[in-house]
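Why do we care about 3D structure at all? Because function follows from shape, and shape follows, mostly, from sequence. That is the central idea of this module. The next example makes it concrete: a single protein chain, its amino acid sequence, and then its structure expressed as C-alpha cells.
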Amino acid sequence: MGNPPPTSGSGGSGDSGGSGGLPPGQRLVQGWPVSHYGPVPRFRPERWNLQVFGATATGGKRVWTFDEFTAFPRTTVVADLHCGMGTTSTGHEWFGVSPVSLMELVPPAADVTHIMVWAEYGYSANLRLADFASDRTILATHRNGESLTAEHGFPLRLVVPHLYAWKGPKWVRGIEYMTRDRRGFWEERGHHNIGDPWKEQRYAHQEQEGDGPAL
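And the structure:
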C-alpha cells in the first residue's frame, strides 16, 4: 500500500530520473525506509493472480497466475523514490514488467483516460493513463538485483518515479481501465489527485480545476 504526505509548500517542476535531485520539501535518506498503511499480507502463490479488467477493448478481463506472470518479459528502470511523508531515496534499480506490455496484451478501450491500481486489502491508487504507460513506470518484482521483501511489496509493486510513492501501491493485484477519473484510497482522504512531487502536490486543497473529481 502507500503512505500519506506531510505538510505542503511551494515547488518547481521536473523529473529527477534517478539523478539524485530532490523535489521541494523532500529530504535525502540512506537505505530504503519501510512505509505503508495497514498490515503486510501473507503471500500464497497458489492463490495469487493479477487481473486486468474494466474498460478493455474487448469488454473482457484477463487473469494471470503467479507462474504465468513470472514468465513475462522483464525490463529495468533506475529511478528515485519520493515518499509522500517527505523522504527521498535515490538510485534504485527496479526490475520487473513494463505496464505497456500488459496494455499490449489487454488493450484499453479507445476512451480510457485513467487507471485504478488495486492492491491487497482493497487499497487503490488512481493514475492518468499516460502516467501508467510512461516508460519510467514499472511493475517491479526486484530492486537492486534482489527480490522484493514482503515489507516492500513482494511479489509485485508499482513504481511511478515521477509521482509520489503513494501512487505506486505495494502488493498489486489488479489494473482497472477507467473512462473517467475516480479517486483512490489516499485521494479520497484529502490527498492530491495527481501527486507530482516536483510541484509538491500533496493535498487536495492544492488542486486546480481539472486535477481531479470532486471529493
